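Sanity check

After download, print the first record. It should look like this:
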Amino acid sequence: MEQEIKINILELASELAHTDLVSLVGDENKLFEDPTAGITTYNDYAQDRFNELYDKYYDIILSCKL
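Expected structure tokens:
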């Protein structure tokens, strides 16, 4: 019997996009405006790539909806 699993689509798409972004850049610290500021604000390059990846993953996850 299959078990129903509930997920937060926004959170999953964000986590997948961030993971891919780190893989693309190679160094997570290169993604942020100020890595020592204690707030995770992507620099312009990283934000643009994140948005693209997020949209891709969001659409994939949503297409799996039952």
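If your output differs, re-run the checksum step. Summary of this record's structure: The two ends are 16 Å apart (CA to CA).
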